[in-house]
Amino acid sequence: MLDKERVLSKIDELDRYLFELKEVVPVSFAEYQKIEKKRSCERLLQLCIESVIDICKLFVSGLALGLPSEENDLFNKMRKKEILSQEMVIVLKEMRGFRNILIHEYTAIDDELVYDAAKEKLTDFNKFKTEILNILKKVEK
How many C-beta neighbours within 10 Å does residue 16 have? Predict the structure, then answer.
């Protein structure tokens, strides 16, 4: 059974990270070059993405959608049950790949890409939340 309270708690966590990210992301790329700004943005983006993945794990396990072979399989299982749109699955797979770069390849991080994500991609998280909250309403019925 889907633990709606845990899902909502994870959504709250995501909201907190997004709020913090909006507070620290600088107006200019030049200001972003300060090490504390770069690391703060990188870490908060990572935490946002991990919150999204955790929400997906709660859905897959709570609705008994099967054992995912990898994180991308979480998204595919949710798509198959029409929990997520195809467009959102594509976005989530890109997020997961971006998170992996942030975690595993610090020397290869493209600062402009991270800065752009912190400035321009936050709407993807809100679209995800909308899809999840709409499904939660349906599950309650």
Answer: 14
Residue ranges, the chain, pLDDT below 50: none
CA distances to 14, 48, 63 from 31, rounded to whole Å, are 25, 22, 45
Residue in 62, 63, 51 with CA at minimum distance from that of residue 14: 51
- Cβ atoms within 10 Å of 75's Cβ, excluding its own: 26
Rounded CA-CA distance 141/136 in Å is 9
Euclidean distance between CA atoms 26 and 137, whole angstroms: 36
Indicate if the alpha-carbon torsion angle 84, 60, 19, 9 is positive or negative: positive
Question: What are the residue boundaries of the structural domains of the chain, listed by start?
Answer: 4-140
**CATH H superfamily, domain 4-140:** bsu32300-like (1.20.120.580)
Number of alpha carbons in the 13 Å side-chain half-sphere of residue 80: 13
**CA 22/CA 35 separation, integer angstroms:** 17
* Predicted local distance difference test score (pLDDT) of residue 106: 60
Q: What is the value of pTM for the model shown? A: 0.93
pLDDT of residue 105: 74
Q: Residue 52 burial by CB count (10 A; 0-12/13-18/19+): exposed, middle or buried?
A: buried
